[in-house]
Amino acid sequence: MADWGFSLSVDGSTELRLLTMADAEALYLLTEENRGDLRTWLNWVDSNTRIEDTRAFINRALRDHQQGDGLHTGIWAGGAMVGVIDLFKIDRANGSAEVGYWLAPAHRGRGLMTRCCAALVDHALRAMGLNRVEIRIVVGNERSEAIPKRLGLTLEGTLREAYWLYDGFKDVRVYSMLAREWSRQVRP
Fold this sequence. Notes:
Layout (H helix, E strand, L loop, with lengths): L6 E5 L2 E5 L5 H10 L1 H5 L11 H16 L4 E7 L2 E12 L4 E8 L8 H16 L4 E7 L3 H9 L3 E11 L4 E10 H6 L4
Parallel strand pairs: 5-6
Antiparallel strand pairs: 1-2, 2-3, 3-4, 4-5, 6-8, 7-8
Helix pairs in contact: 1-3
């Protein structure tokens, strides 16, 4: 059974909380405020233009969570939602999952997303008992790519033209962390 009250403390003022329908308006407004910036690297922005689209996303996210296939959380810093971080494509049979994330520009540059990723990767590899976590980055998104590098994930390679981004297919870099590697690391 899903834990609808899931939250994960990142630091004294930041937590990851499972997205629920009560978060629809906050998520929609955050997306609207940052639409131009988000569109640079995320291919879902143009298809999420109404609050109903945000509600449909949260509904799918809750269904994924109920089925054990995903953990979609809002990033709450200082009491406000400032971004989203997801653990998705959870494959229990193979002990793997992917992490995806975005953060409002006003909250970048202070290590917040690195701390959120570290907390979620730790949760996946320790609490959930997964063996492998991946982070996939569109080539050219240097700020986003700095995060798996900081956390010590291994660059496995580049998937050629693996992500459609409005004007064409883009290459994607795949980073991974194994549970045994994570347990030996000193983290930020």
